Amino acid sequence: MNLNSPIIKICCIQDRAEAQLAISLGANALGLVSDMPSGPGVISLDQIRDIAVFIPKPVESVLLTSEQSSEGILEQVEYCKPTAIQIVDKLLIGSHQDIRGEFPELIIIQVIHVTGIESIVEAEKVSSSVDALLLDSGNKLLATKVLGGTGKVHDWSISKQICKYAQIPVILAGGLDQTNVGEAIRTVNPAGLDVCSGVRTNAKLDKVKLTSYMNNIQWPD
Question: Whole-model pTM?
Answer without folding.
Answer: 0.94
